[in-house]
Design a protein that fits this description.
By secondary structure, this protein is an all-alpha fold. 82% of the residues lie in helices and 0% in strands. It contains 3 helices and no strands. It has helices at 5-16, 26-59, 66-121. Helix 1 (5-16) packs parallel to helix 3 (66-121). The longest helix has 56 residues, at 66-121. The two termini are 44 Å apart.
Amino acid sequence: MSCVGELADCCARLRTLRKWWRPEEVDVIAACIEEAEQLPEREATEREALRVAEDELRELVPNGTDATQSRWRELQRRVTAARKSLNDLAVASSALYAALGVELWWARTNHWREGVENANAHGR
């Protein structure tokens, strides 16, 4: 899968400017892009887990038994865990967008600088 939205746009722009990535950050940038590309699949998995748990919880009929109470607690844990995971993924997406945005700026700056240097070298 690939990233979506603004993060996807940032990743795509960075890929086109790979030649101008800061050499000391190449591995970090590549790892961040890879992580960003995995986010949609991970999010879809968590959304499905949340949907399933919420559906099961909605169908659970309170009957006062320990088994039902136990099942309710289990489903509540699953719902809470899925929501927390979705929140964590949203935070990760924001962090990646911020980090990759900085690297995009550096790549664009390096690309611009190279263009200026070439123009100056050729007397344009």
